[in-house]
Amino acid sequence: MTADRFGAVPSGEYTALASVRDQTSPYAALPEPVVPEGPALPVEPDAEQPAVGSRPRDRSWRPAIPPQHGAWAFLIVPVLCGFAVAGASPAGWLLLVAWVCAYPVGYYLGRALTARVRRGSWSRLARRELARVVPWAVMTAGLGLPLLLTRPWLLVVAALLAVLWGLGLWLAARRGERSLANDLMLVAQATVALPLSVAVVAGPAMLVGDLAGPTVQATLVVAAYLAGSVLHVKSLLREAGIPAYRRANLAWHGVLVVGSTLLSPWWLVGTAPALARAVLLRPGMRPGAIGGVEAAVALLVVVAAFLAL
Predict the structure, then answer these.
(1) What are 256-294's pLDDT values in tens digits?
(2) Where is 13: in which H helix or E strand?
(3) Can you tell me the distance from the alpha carbon of 115 to that of 113, in angstroms, rounded to the nearest whole number?
(4) What DSSP element (H or E) covers 22?
(5) Is 26 helix (H, G, I), strand (E, B) or coil?
(6) Rounded distance, CA 135 to CA 138, Å?
(7) Residues 61-83: tens digit of each pLDDT
(8) Left, alpha or beta for 57 (phi > 0: left; psi -120 to 50: alpha)?
């Protein structure tokens, strides 16, 4: 999956679409449509362009969902693999839900600030994205507060995540939101969730105690798997015309299989299918089909973690 946390922000508010029409067309007298300038944002027809003759529906109460479908696996897999190390608990499940809710906060806040920096003012786009932060921020705060009150050390983790998020924002402001570096920044943030979930469930002391070895093993394998997922999806979609990406994808997954097998043969349950899909899949597939394969591989990686640890 290619995770564009802030998405592409157009460089201008709106600009007329210049085109030449067939003067014999019965529609030649109609005005030209107005479209966003630059890379297009995801369009929400009901919210942005209500159908002719229909009344726009008020969705202000409903949280907007980031259109980065692969990001959800990046959020969930590390936490579940942390459960494979330390077991699950009510606090662990609470962390998982809060962690998932925090992603849209960073996503929409990043888009709002990026639009503000690029345009030099709080444009309509920037204000809209900022408004989308609110419901998710309220949910994240409500879920995270009990954890923070009982585990004040989470403030240190929050500071570390804020630094990583800020680096991603800096890349987005420099129009690098679709770059490999930005995607790997998301991998780094997602990977933090694995030792974090172990610490929340078993206590931070266990990270240097009895669970140190399994935690390090799981963190290395999951981080390598997520980075491989980034390379794989890029080689099929955005970088499909660059042979070097495919070669890097195959080499990375080969190393992942060998390295994880040395740690535990059970990791093959997840890494072998990951290598197989890297070898077999070719550019031209629909993004939805690619995402379905990635979801299946992610599930197998979680299963492998429970078997190996």
Answers:
(1) 999 999 999 999 999 999 999 999 998 888 888 898 999
(2) strand 12-16
(3) 5
(4) none
(5) coil
(6) 5
(7) 567 888 877 788 889 999 999 99
(8) beta
